[in-house]
Design brief:
The chain has 301 residues and is an alpha/beta fold. Helix 2 packs across helix 3 and helix 3 runs parallel beside helix 4. The structure holds NADP nicotinamide-adenine-dinucleotide phosphate. NADP nicotinamide-adenine-dinucleotide phosphate (NAP) binds next to helix 1.
């Protein structure tokens, strides 16, 4: 086992947690990214390489000497940027380059319930990449997180921000569709654990608590001390309001597909928890920070 691991997007959201955890255990870190960023306090030194999507040989060269590749690369939504089809093509190229470079283990961060027949291109693409990884022959682990929380997470922080700033929060539909949030630190630990297993595995990364969406919003509002009224609204009306919120925040707050996926319980799975941290504990410990700032996906891009 070599001592260098590669984390794609080491300055990104999950990538940062992963690289910190790995560095704490003595690993050296290389990354692929299109956005090298300043090192923050607590960040390890990272050997930065570009995503060479137009040069497979350069991509392979960037992966030589890597023991484990932790792949966080994916595209949340397409408009104005990389499309999901490009994301799939690039991910296939990354798998091929890792195989050619002799990477020992490929740990792939996917998502719960990837599905080639989904209405949602994000989930279809995720399923396609998982299949490509299984067919590649490289030793691999596929980790499928639900919605992530902790630090600069987008969903929990932005629910917090909305309930802090608006007197009313519109719950789409009956609000009884469920989520099973998972801490990003736990996801990082799980990825590192399965990196050391000998067999190919696929595992959900799910926390111990399950929430109906309206209960989740209520829990966030209570934790941050917001006196925001939750009202039910038809999903179609909420979808019409989202672009208005987008104008206010300068971001794509939630896409129509994300709303539909949320209501179809794409971020909920049954079964035993694979990660220990409770969202309610996180909210209690970080009540002053949750939602204090809006977390903009577009600004990050
Ligand atoms: N965040 C969640 O709640 C959540 C929940 C379930 C699953 N996941 C999965 O976890 C993985 C990591 O998510 P994350 O939120 O940590 O992602 P992220 O930090 O925003 O990005 C991860 C990597 O993907 C690249 N990337 C992201 N969006 C891109 C775009 N539009 N065009 C080109 N490159 C893009 C980033 O490039 P740069 O390095 O150049 O910035 C980075 O290398 C993804 O596979 C995601 O599907 C996330």
């Amino acid at each position: 086992m070599g001592d260098i691991d590669l984390v794609t997007g080491a300055f990104g959201y999950t990538g940062r947690y992963l690289s910190r955890r790995l560095a704490d255990s003595g690993r050296r870190i290389r990354t692929l990214t299109a956005h090298p960023r300043p090192i923050l306090p607590g960040d390890p030194q990272v050997d930065v390489h570009p995503y060479s999507w137009d040069d497979p040989d350069a991509l392979t060269a960037s992966l030589r000497g890597i023991d484990t590749l932790y792949n966080t690369y994916w595209v949340r939504y397409a408009p104005g940027g990389t499309t999901h089809a490009q994301g799939v093509r690039n991910s296939r190229m990354l798998i091929a380059a890792a195989t050619a470079a002799g990477v020992r283990r490929f740990v792939h961060v996917s998502i719960t319930k990837p599905d080639r027949t989904s209405f949602y291109e994000y989930y279809r693409g995720k399923a396609e990449i998982e299949d490509a990884l299984r067919a590649s022959g490289i030793s691999h682990a596929i980790v499928r997180p639900t919605v992530l929380f902790g630090g600069d997470d987008i969903l929990i922080n932005n629910i917090g921000w909305l309930v802090r700033h608006f007197p009313v929060f519109a719950i789409p539909g009956d609000g009884r569709y469920r989520l099973r949030p998972v801490a990003t630190t736990d996801l990082a630990d799980l990825c590192i654990r399965v990196a050391g297993e000998p067999d190919d595995v696929t595992v959900d990364a799910v926390g111990p608590e399950s929430f109906a969406f309206e209960d989740l919003v209520a829990a966030v509002a209570e934790a941050v001390g917001a006196r925001c009224r939750l009202v039910h609204a038809p999903p179609g009306l909420v979808a019409l309001m989202l672009p208005v919120l987008g104008l206010l925040t300068g971001d794509v707050v939630l896409t129509r597909d994300e709303l539909r996926g949320l209501m179809a319980e794409y971020v909920h799975v049954d079964g035993a928890a694979t990660c220990p941290t409770r969202l309610t504990d996180h909210l209690a410990e970080h009540a002053t920070e949750v939602g204090a700032r809006y977390q903009s996906e577009l600004a990050r891009r």
